[in-house]
Protein 1
Amino acid sequence: MTQAAAAPLRVAIHWRFVGGCGRPAFDAAALTAEERAAACRFLRPADAALWLESRFLLRTTLAARLGVAPDRLTFRRSRHGKPALDGLLRFNLSHAGGLALLAVAEDRLAELGIDVERADRPVTEALIRAATAPAEAAALLALPEARRGAAFLELWTRKESLLKAAGCGLSQPVRAVALDPRDGRLLALPPALGRPEEHRLLKLALPAPYLAVLAVRDPLRRPVLPEMTPPA
C-alpha cells in the first residue's frame, strides 16, 4: 500500500512596518516593564521603535493564539538564547530596516528560523570573505559589483535563518554552512545541526528592497507552506 503524502506544515508569516505611515501608536501596555526599559538603552530612536514594535508584534500575535493577555506571556530561553514558550507554538522573530517579521506554527517537532535584510545594505569584500565558505566567496566576488551585494544577502538570509531554526544562532560558524551560490541550495552544515535534508529554506515574497528567508528544521521532512498575513 502506498503511504499517503505528509500534510504540509503551515507557517504563518506576520509582518509590520515600523516608523509612521500614519498609523496610530501601538499599545505599550502589551509589553513588559523590562521590554520598555530595554528600549531606553538604544542610542537611536529608530532602533528603539523597531525593538518596541517588534516585541509588540510578537506578544500580541502569540497572545491572540493562546487567549491570554500579551504582557502575561513568559518566555524561556535556550542555552544559546532562543526564546520559546511551553506547548505547541513555534515561532521566530526578525527585524531590519523598518520591518519586523514573525513566523508562527503549531507543531511539536518542527523548529522555525526567519531572517530579513534590506537588499540595499552595504556589503564589503571583507564581509563576504568573513561570512562565506571559500567556494561561495569566489563565486560572489566573480559577480559584477552591482550584483554582488544582493547575491551575498540572498545567501546570508538563508544561513542566518537556518542557524536560528537550529537554535544556535551565530554560536556556530557561519562559514561552515555551505550553500550553492547559484541557487541557494543547502550543501553541508556542521554535524551538530543535523542533516541537510531535515532543513527547508524558503524565500518569502516581500516588497523591495527587503529580502527574507524562512527556515524550518523538521525531522519528518514535511513540505512547508508559508502563509503571508496582511501587514499589521
Protein 2
Amino acid sequence: MDEKDSKILKLLRGNARMTYQEIGEELGMSRVAAKKRVQKLEKEGVIRGYNTCIYRDGEIRAFILVETTPERFDTMLRYVSTRMQWVRQIFCLYRQNHFMMIVATPSSEDLRYMANVIAKQEGVIKVTCDAVSEVIKDVYGGVRRYEENWEPQRGNEYEAAGMGTGGSSNSNNRSDS
C-alpha cells in the first residue's frame, strides 16, 4: 500500500459514496486508475465493505461484555452473531473466553431483555451491560466539538434502570431447560 492508496482510504472514510472520477480528481489520476486502485484495495481485504450507518431518535446504544466457559465460547459467538438482531459489532478480547458487543436497541427494556436472554444461555458466566450516555466521536457521524462551556453528560435514565454503571447478570449454575 502506497501513499496514494492511503489517500484513497482517507477520502473514502470521509465519504464512501465518492465516485471514481472524484477520487481521481483529488489525487491527480484518471477515473480508471482510481477505480483499479479501489478494486485492488477491496480484493486485498483492506476495504471490506461499504455501510450505511443509521441512527434513530431514542435508540439505546450499549456495550455488552460476555464471559463464557471455554467449551461454550464459539457456540455463544455463533449465537449472538446469528440470533441477536440488535448486535452491530462483536469483538473477541484478549481476556480468555470474553467478547464485547456493541448493540443498539429501540428501548432500555429491549436492552435489558437482550442481556437477560444472553445471561440464560448455557456456558455464560457473566454478562455486563453499559448503556452509552453520549457519543463524543463517531467516525460514521462526526466529531463532537469541545467548546469552553461543554461538559460531558453524567448520570441518566439508564443508570436508574441499572444499565449505566455495569449492571450485570450472572448465570452460574443455570440449566438450559
Protein 3
Amino acid sequence: MNNPLSHIGVLVLAAGASSRMVSVKQLLPFGNSTVIGTILDKVCALQVGKLVVVTGAYPEIYMECKSKSEVLIPIHNRKWRNGMGSSIACGTHFMNRHFKEIKTLLVVLSDQPLLTVGHLKKLIQPFEDLHNDHPDAVATSHRFGRGVPAAFSHRLFPELRKLNDDIGAKSLLSKNTLDCHTIVPDFDTIDIDTKEDYLNLLNK
C-alpha cells in the first residue's frame, strides 16, 4: 500500500558535543528509554517517507540509531564542529542525493523529549497533499521567534544546504520575505544543555 506521506522526510539533529554536560545528553535515561530514544519513537510514529539522524561527535549515538529501528538512517556529519547549521545542510544534501522523492523536510532536535507527536503532525499537515498550495515553512513559535522543530518546503532546500553555523535555521526562518506559518507548541520546549536542565526535565 502506498504511503501518502512518502514525500516527507525527517532530520533529527544529534551531532553536537554536549560541551556543558559530563556525558552524552542524548543517551541519558528518560522514561523507559533514553532522551534520543524517546524522540525517535515519536518521529517513527509519524510514518513518513524517510527518517535520517545526523550524528557527529559521538559514535555511540550512531550505534544507538542503528539498533533502534531499521527505518532509521544514521549519517555522520564530518563538519559537526561548525554547528547545527552544518548538520541541517548535511542532512539536506543526503536526502536530496539519495531520496529525490522527498519534497518536505521536518527538522527536529535530539534533546527535547517532551516533544509531542501531535505537534509534529501539525507542522507537516500543510504539506501532506502535494497538489495543494503550501507555505515555505511551518515553524514552532518560541519566545525568541520562529524555530525548530520546523517543516520546510522543497523550495527552501537550496537555502538549507547553505547553512553552516551554530544558529541552525533561525536566520532562514526569520526572513521577512518567507511565507512561514507558526504553531504554538503543546509541550514544554526545554532542551538539555546542562545537568540542571536534565534534572528539571525529569521533574516535569
Protein 4
Amino acid sequence: MDERGAPAEVDAGAVADGDSEPDAAAADVAAALEAVLFIAEEPCEEVALASGLGLPVAQVRQALEELRAHYDAAHRGVELRRVGGGWRFYTRADQASAVERFVLSGQHARLTQAALETLAVIAYRQPVSRSRVSAVRGVNVDGVIRTLLARGLIEEAGTEPETGATLYRTTRYFLERLGINDLSELPPLADFLPEGTSIEELESSEDHPEP
C-alpha cells in the first residue's frame, strides 16, 4: 500500500532480482518447483524458473538447494541435479539395476498406435525435435517420446542450433528390431500417407494453420 491506501505496483524486474516481492511459503515454492521440473525436457535455469513462477531468483535458488538436500537425505529414487547451468530430476545411479529390469521387462510389449506413429515420424525425419514431431502428428508427444527412449528405440542426437531443442534419432536397436541394416532400407514414406500428401505439407499446415 502507498500513503493513500492504494495497492503499490510491483516491479516485475525487481521480483526476478529478488529485491521487493515477499517470500512465498517455502512448501508452496518447493511444490511448484517440483511440478515444473517434473515435466521439464531440459535443465531449467534459476532465472527462468523465477520468472515463470513470479518469485525472486534468490528464493528459488535457496528452495532448489533445500529440495536437493531433502531428496538426498531421504535417499529417494530420483535426485535433483544442477547440470549445464540448470536444474533437472534424474534417477539415482544406485537404482540403475531396478530401472534396467523394468525397462527390459517391457521390451516385448506391443507399442501403441501413437507410439508407432511417433516412431515413424522420427525414423523418416531424423534428427528431429519433439516440437516438430508434435507438429506432424498434431498432438503432444512427450509421454510417447519417453516410452520410445525407455524402449531404446530412439536416442538424443544433440540440439537444434536455432532453438536449443533436443533432437532425436532412431538407434541401432531400432534397425535390429526391423531386421534392416540402415535407414535406406525403410519403405518409401509416401506409401503410408494420404494420397497426394507429403510430410512437408503436414508440417506446413501445422506451422501455418488456416485462419
